[in-house]
């Protein structure tokens, strides 16, 4: 059911090998010796990539069906990008998509275009982003966080369920590095104003100037490549974008 969610006690306890098998060796717990329950043994896999040297740096929060992840993958082939999605079946669907794309790349036929990164750099995890993000990411780990077409929760009494709020922004500021960027896009003007206001009011974020926003390749991708964004385009709806930089820590 959607009620049981797995999450690590701390980012150091997270085993990323299931999500990025080309980048991480398996952490396996030894459970026999009484004093070694925390001991971890490394199981090496064959790969050209130096294992266990990278960390996730980009997160797509509430990633839905994975369109953004798949477009970002070849754009940032050296960067690990994680989608987090609360719905179990949607998560499983995105996992299947990623596995199929990886397999296509590894069994490449002659004449087929080479995809930088081979989709080994994207992963999907099931999780509630409003509850457990600091369990997955350490301080300053992320360089970009995407909030694409988040659920609008229209009614005032439901506003506390919105994914941008003062409390959650403090968490996002903690896991984002100074200079890191929060990207937001929605087709609901009221939600856009809400997100922009809360980010504007927060001392750890400053809005990206319009010019800089429009030049950012991620903004272009986020406008066109998420499933929700495509639906809005089909219905000729509007899309509101606001991006914010995480400022330096106060001295
Ligand atoms: N970002 C995708 C896009 O643009 O196509 C999906 C947008 S959809 C309207 C919102 C998604 O956020 C849904 O897939 C929903 O399951 C997910 N979601 C809602 N609350 C969440 C939470 N607390 N943690 C993770 N995902 C969440």
Shape: globular
Q: Which parts are unreliable, with pLDDT below 50 for 5 consecutive residues or more?
A: 30-34
Radius of gyration from the CA trace? 19 Å
Tell me what the CATH architecture is: 3-Layer(aba) Sandwich
Helix content: 25-40%
CATH class: Alpha Beta
Number of E-state strands: 9
Question: What is the succession of H and E elements?
Answer: EEEHEHEHEHEHEHHHE
Strands of the largest sheet, in order across it? 5-4-3-6-7-9-8
Q: How would you characterize this protein structure?
A:
The chain has 8 helices and 9 strands. The protein is of the alpha/beta class and about 250 residues long. The relative contact order is 0.14. The chain has a single domain (about 55-245), classed as 3-Layer(aba) Sandwich (Rossmann fold), CATH 3.40.50.150. α1 links the parallel β3 and β4 (about 80-85). Strands 5-4-3-6-7-9-8 form a 7-stranded mixed beta sheet, with helices on both faces. The protein is about 30% helix and about 20% strand. S-adenosylmethionine binds near residues 64, 129, 149 and 229. S-adenosylmethionine binds near residues 86, 87, 90, 228 and 229.
